[in-house]
From TrEMBL:
<dbReference type="GO" id="GO:0005615">
    <property type="term" value="C:extracellular space"/>
</dbReference>
<feature type="compositionally biased region" description="Low complexity">
    <location>
        <begin position="40"/>
        <end position="53"/>
    </location>
</feature>
<dbReference type="InterPro" id="IPR036378">
    <property type="entry name" value="FAS1_dom_sf"/>
</dbReference>
<feature type="domain" description="FAS1">
    <location>
        <begin position="51"/>
        <end position="182"/>
    </location>
</feature>
<protein>
    <submittedName>
        <fullName>Putative surface protein with fasciclin (FAS1) repeats</fullName>
    </submittedName>
</protein>
<dbReference type="InterPro" id="IPR050904">
    <property type="entry name" value="Adhesion/Biosynth-related"/>
</dbReference>
<feature type="region of interest" description="Disordered">
    <location>
        <begin position="24"/>
        <end position="53"/>
    </location>
</feature>
<feature type="signal peptide">
    <location>
        <begin position="1"/>
        <end position="23"/>
    </location>
</feature>
<dbReference type="Pfam" id="PF02469">
    <property type="entry name" value="Fasciclin"/>
</dbReference>
<keyword id="KW-0732">Signal</keyword>
<dbReference type="InterPro" id="IPR000782">
    <property type="entry name" value="FAS1_domain"/>
</dbReference>
Length: 185
């Protein structure tokens, strides 16, 4: 039995001393070196093959540049690039233009980040609700804790009485394009 223990120790020692430590720098080189790369979240993952997530779809739309700027200013990019699933009611640039003059500029300031996040989170539901599931008097609890009312005006789906202009499926949910900014109570 003692010879078996000695043999196992000898084998283990041999394996440990025969490991090539010169390959370790290659592995270490694959680890991001900059703070930006280390701190980057899901939004930093590059994937040109898969279906785009809600942020990538919005970023690719010329009609949603204000929304994308607001999502960035609010620090919500990584949250919205995660797996979700999300239903996002996405106001167009024209919707933001309907707000009183100076409102958007004021919300994009760092000192207004809390208010901006509240408004943007009022546009997000955790789960996927396609327009085919909209029903009169249906309500959803939004990320900010508020509620929105879904409905149908004839065959036209609405959220808080605002018409859904288009719906776009994404890898992590669905975007419903709207032409008004939803404001929490």
């Amino acid at each position: 039995m003692k010879s078996l223990h000695v043999a196992l120790i000898a084998i283990a020692f041999g394996l440990l001393t025969s490991c090539n430590t010169e390959s370790q720098p290659e592995t270490a080189a694959a680890v991001p070196e900059t703070e930006t790369e280390q701190g980057a979240g899901q939004s930093a993952v590059s994937d040109d093959q898969s279906q785009q997530n809600v942020v990538q779809v919005a970023a690719g739309s010329k009609d949603h540049t204000t929304l994308v700027a607001a999502v960035k200013a609010a620090g919500l990019v990584d949250a919205l690039t995660n797996a979700g699933p999300f239903t996002v009611f996405a106001p167009t640039n024209a919707a933001f233009d309907k707000l009183p003059a100076g409102t958007v500029d004021g919300l994009l300031k760092p000192e207004s980040r809390k208010d901006l996040r509240n408004i943007l989170q009022y546009h997000v539901y955790v789960g996927v609700i396609p327009v085919e599931r909209f029903d009169n008097d249906m309500t959803l609890g939004q990320v900010n804790g508020g509620r929105v009312k879904l409905g149908l005006e004839g065959d036209q789906p609405t959220v808080n009485g605002v018409k859904i202009l288009a719906s776009i499926p994404t890898s992590n949910g669905i975007i419903h394009v709207i032409d008004q900014v939803l404001l929490p109570e």
